[in-house]
Amino acid sequence: MAPRTFYIRTFGCQMNEHDSERLAGSLVADGLVATDDMETADVVVFNTCCIRENADNKFYGHLGNLKTLRESRPDMQIAVGGCLAQMDGEEIRRRAGHVDVVFGTHNLTRAPALLRQAAAAGPVVEILDEALPDEQAANGGQLVAALAAERDVPYSAWVNIQMGCDNSCAYCIVPAVRGGEVSRPMDELVAEVGSLAGRGVTEVTLLGQNVNSYGRDITRRRPLFADLLRQVGAVEGIRRVRFTSPHPKDLRPETIAAMAETEAVCNHLHLPLQSGSDAVLSAMRRGYSAERYLERLAAARAAIDDLAVTTDIIVGFPGETDEDFEQTLAVAAEAAYDSAYTFIFSPRPGTRAAAMEDRFVDAEVIAERFERLRVVVERTADHRHRARIGRVEEVMVEGPSKRDPAVATGRTSQNKLVHFVPPDGRLPAPGSYADVEVTGAARHHLTGRLLAVTSRPSHRVRIPVTAR
Ligand code: SAH
Ligand code: SF4
Ligand code: F3S
Q: Which of 60, 150, 252, 319 could form a disulfide with 24 if both were Cys (CB 3.0 to 4.6 A apart)?
């Protein structure tokens, strides 16, 4: 009998993308085979996000679309996991009775067992408040985060260094759906990166909700994140180390020094601002002032050559006044971001901010502020992109551009996307490094001229693609 096939659709952040890789790992270990085609897959898994309301709506839309398909194929199974599943639990089956399995963020690896259970005895919902001790034991004492992953790309890998979040930002649902911070031991992480490097991975991205508090739950001795950056950067074969996200309140001088002194650490810092108003920052419980944020940013820029800085900003937090918003514009202009993810405040069930209903900002006011912020961010982004023209950048090649297969794309250390056309028409293999002269700048990417391919990838096999 042909093995059952699975298709995973992922919503949300990089952490969820990486969870999907681990989920794929556990399904493959259970004898299933990945497919790119949702229509024919025997098992369709949605790994969901609930960070903002539109994330919920998007997902329920996709789920609704599968109803007819599920009805026409009795053997097919639909599973829903991840953050929204953790938040909504039973509600998912109430809204979509064609779902076979619902699991949360703490029992990802139970998915194969739950699928089998559902095939034998009908729909199952299993949401846990924390990881089962026996599940950890079954994994040789390892945290779920350490499970073998079916990685999408053979030359670049995500590594989860910490699960959950110990902060309590007033708007944020993450601590409720992901639990408290649990760090993975440093030696385990360094070994994992070593093994990835051995398989030809040259770029790693360290993932956590607040990476600079990494290790706080293991020891109070010293800032472990700085040590981790240095150790991972020293692993033979690792040319690029990225990380996301650091929290501004915990960005310590030791981390900045480790970034500056570790050659492999990329020249990019994603430092979420959220708001430039002290009153709003305090209501958000972010633990820093605008001045403190700018000081830390200045320290990072002073220590690290040619640093690109990106951020997250929320517009329309409850009670945000015109003056508060003006301060956000001023800080954004001063910070001179390379790009910013800007979000409209979305009340999330159970969060402190959701209870501030009497102070919600009018949707029209928010829309107007959002637009003004976009203009300010684009001004500095354009300026900083244009300043790259004429420079020679080392680019890690990612593959052909989605729009035009004759154009190659890659990323610089600053994490800027570069499009370039190889003069001989032959695209360097994904995972190659190349020197590219920047010849043009657009809002979201640079264009360039290939000077030389400086190294080719050493990975041997293309790891099966986990469908998205
Ligand atoms: N741990 C990360 C953030 C993860 S969520 C950090 O602290 O940097 C990614 C971004 O989504 C946040 O930085 C915030 O800007 C945005 N966000 C989170 N909750 C939101 C909400 N309720 N409404 C609007 N934006 C939100
Ligand atoms: Fe959410 Fe704040 Fe934790 Fe980030 S640091 S995940 S915004 S609670
Ligand atoms: Fe990520 Fe969304 Fe969960 S942003 S942590 S997948 S709520």
A: 150
Indicate the helix (H) or strand (E) that contains 78. strand 77-82
Please tell me the pTM assigned to this model: 0.94
Residues 78, 95 contacting (CB under 8 angstroms)? no
State which of 54, 87, 105, 172 you would mutate to test the pocket of ligand 1, scoring each by most atoms of that ligand within 8 A of its C-beta: 172
The closest residue, in CA terms, to atom 1 on ligand 3 is 13
What are the angstrom distances between the C-alpha of 16 and each of 23, 64, 218, 400, 441? 10, 21, 24, 25, 31
Minimum-distance ligand 2 atom for the alpha carbon of 210: 5
The closest alpha carbon to 55, from 32, 29, 30, 84, belongs to: 84
Give one DSSP letter per residue of 79-113, joined into a string.
EEEEHHHHHHTHHHHHH-TT--EEE-SS-GGGHHH
- Pocket perturbation via mutation, ligand 3, pick of 10, 13, 106 by most ligand atoms within 8 A of CB: 13
For the chain, the average pLDDT equals 92
Going by C-alpha positions, the residue among 272, 268, 302 that lies closest to residue 414 is: 268
> Structural domain boundaries of the chain?
5-130, 153-266, 271-387, 392-455
Strands 392-400 and 408-411: antiparallel
Question: What is the CA angle 327-332-333, rounded to 5?
Answer: 100
Contact between 405 and 452 under an 8 Å Cβ cutoff? The reply is no
Question: Is residue 13's pLDDT more than 90?
Answer: yes
- Percent helix, strand and coil across the chain, each to the nearest 5: 40, 20, 40
Q: Please work out, in degrees rounded to the nearest 5, the angle formed at the alpha carbon of residue 363 by the alpha carbons of 357 and 369.
A: 115
CATH fold of the domain at 153-266: Transcription Regulator spoIIAA (3.30.750)
pLDDT of res. 148 = 66
User: How many other CB atoms are found less than 10 A from the CB of residue 75?
Assistant: 8
CATH of 392-455, one of 2.40.50.140, 3.50.30.10, 3.40.50.720, 1.20.1250.20: 2.40.50.140
Q: Are 107 and 84 in contact (CB under 8 A)?
A: no
In this prediction, residue 358 carries a pLDDT of: 96
Tell me which DSSP letter residue 47 carries: E
